[in-house]
Design brief:
It is a single chain. Helix content is 40%, strand content 29%. The chain contains two helices and four strands. It has helices at 22-32, 64-89, and strands at 2-8, 12-18, 38-44, 53-58. Strands 1-2-4-3 form a four-stranded antiparallel beta sheet, covered by helices on one side. Helix 1 (22-32) packs across helix 2. The longest helix has 26 residues, at 64-89.
Length: 92
Amino acid sequence: MNIEILELTGVRARILFRGESHTFMNMLTDEILQDPVVDVAKYTMEFQFSDPELVVTTDGKKDPLTVVREACQRLMSDCDELLKDVRAAVPR
């Protein structure tokens, strides 16, 4: 995954996600919004096939990149748990 940080302050980040779709961005945005320090988490795609831009703002208790990183780690954990459950459910 290629990302480009377009803007970064102590409470706001704008990040471009090259080649990603609504599927990933919806999942990531929903997970970011679970953090109570987040004021805004949204993404936009100017055109159907353009790269999505994520905007995250916080109340200042955490920087926005930390919030994004932590959300990604929670998503990875959820996916690992799902894979474990699928493997356990498959008869051998």
